[in-house]
Amino acid sequence: MELKVRRVFTMVEERRIESGRVADVPLRKVATVAILENPYAGRYVENLSSLIKASPVLGAQMAAPALSAMAPYDVQSYGKGGLVGIGGEQEHANALLTTVFANPFREAIGRGDAWISSMTKVAGPGTMIDIPMNSIDDVYVRSHYDGMSLVLPDAPMPDEIAVIFCLANRGRINARVGGMTYAEARKAKKG
Fold it and tell me: Rounded to whole angstroms, how far apart are CA atoms 113 and 138?
């Protein structure tokens, strides 16, 4: 199956001050969104493997603009999600967001062993979605538990799926709840 991508766009949020404290490094969050035609809108299909098999190409197409928008920063956290128009079902987005979709992002980043948090739902245009994010090296790095809230004013239409991948260059500004640090996670990965 070849996925029919109707639109792709990238959003950037950069936080510089939190609670009156200026960050030593701004927190940059990037979301790349692909709006696809849902090939299964309006009907039930038992086997969704064709979506899964087609998703790595989509992941590769989305990774390039996401990483470009992160420059000059390295990626420290990620998350993924999807909105399915009301003509489809939640499982359609989940089929597009498996590990095979995410692996091109990991390859483009150059690492990323940690499980990737995700959120999907069926919704109409303009519905907000919160994409959970965590450290790319270890899901237990508490400073990197964060997210990105998105509203797509004209998506998803009933026959669309909005596939979303988010990246960030650091943990939360002023994070101070303890646990493993990002530096400790990186050191453990390097062995």
Answer: 7
Inter-CA distances, 152 with 5, 81, 146, Å: 16, 13, 20
Q: Collect the ranges in the chain with pLDDT lower than 50.
A: none
For the chain, the structural domain boundaries read 5-190
3-state secondary structure the chain: CCCCEEEEEEEEEEEEEECCEEEEEEEEEEEEEEEEECCCCCCCCCCCHHHHHHHHHHHHHHHHHHHHHHCCCCCCEEEEEEEECCCCCHHHHHHHCCHHHHHHHHHHHCCCCCCCCEEEEECCCCCEEEEEEEECCCCCCHHHCEEEEEECCCCCCCCEEEEEEEEECCCCCCCCCCCCCHHHHHHHHHC
Topology of domain 5-190 in CATH is 60s Ribosomal Protein L30; Chain: A; (3.30.1330)
Q: What local confidence, expressed as pLDDT, does residue 189 receive?
A: 77
Instruction: Give CA–CA dist 11/17, Å, rounded.
Output: 19
Predicted structure pTM score: 0.95
pLDDT tens string 151-170: 999 999 999 999 999 999 99
Please tell me the predicted confidence (pLDDT) of residue 190. Answer: 77
Q: How many whole angstroms separate alpha carbon 20 and alpha carbon 117?
A: 30
